[in-house]
Amino acid sequence: MTTPFGTRLADAVAARGPLCVGLDPHRELLLEWGLTDDVDGLRRFTDLVVEALAGHVAVLKPQLAFYERHGSRGMAVLEDAVAWARAAGALVLLDAKRGDIGSTMAGYADYLRPGHPLAVDALTVSPYLGPDSLEPARRTAEQCGGGLFVLARTSNPDAATFQSALVGERSVAQTVVDTVGRWNAPGRLVGDPASDPASFADQQGRWGAFTGSHGVVVGATLAELDVDLSGLRGPVLAPGLGAQGGSVADLRRLFGDRAVVPSVSRDVLRAGADVAALRAAADRWTAELTA
């Protein structure tokens, strides 16, 4: 059975630092790089980013929509990139934000199956249809050693309209966090200090004992943390650094010593179509995050 995502993530962070870089090849960025907004430009962009970063950062996060918009040939570019990135040691988190029920959700979760043409390590999912809607994805993730990051308290300005609404005495966002925390509950967590002391030791300190394989998305741009993460027992994906206004100081203010995967896209990709420049931009963020 594949080593659980939580273990692989903790190992990658220990070896490379916690940085996650998004692959967001939208039209404006391709043109800014001097590339064409077509499959050829998409492939050139993707190859440059993967060459620059797959051997250096812990996580790469391709945004599925920017590949789907180019049809089957765009998806072929992504398939090649995911295989290349994982072979180079990066974990791949597919930013798909899928959410549905029953067999449809199970179909989305197939991205986590090792035999899938686009097999990835983890997947972002939306909980809007309710906790039970996520069960097919959770089951597939646990069977295949994959991970899920569930949208909880996101960084877009009007997110609180829904996410802060109350379900009984808890906000929607808190209900999501608590649901994911139950997935990571004792007995379903990563590692065993008795049978695997080295792996257990690697997960101490900032990443805590028993980092689970399922996490939540909480934006790094929040004015204050309005969800309780103490029972999560898993990682937080924190988008919003750099161009969106979030800083390393904000990460520490919001999350303290919790297991956080900070996500940066534009502040790395704006380095342009140059392998050395992209790598240097990512290295600067890694150095700041690990200082």
What does this 3D model show about the protein?
The structure is a single chain. By secondary structure, this protein is α/β, with parallel strands linked by helices. The chain has an eight-stranded parallel beta barrel with strand order 1-2-3-4-5-8-9-10, surrounded by six helices. The protein has a two-stranded antiparallel sheet with strand order 6-7. Helix 6 packs parallel to helix 7 (135-144). Helix content is 42%, strand content 15%. The chain is globular and about 50 Å long. It has one domain (5-290): TIM Barrel, CATH 3.20.20. The model is unreliable at 189-205 (pLDDT under 50). It has 13 helices and ten strands. The two termini are 35 Å apart.
Give a quick set of tags describing it.
291 residues; alpha/beta; TIM Barrel; eight-stranded parallel beta barrel; two-stranded antiparallel sheet; 13 helices; 42% helix; 15% strand; globular
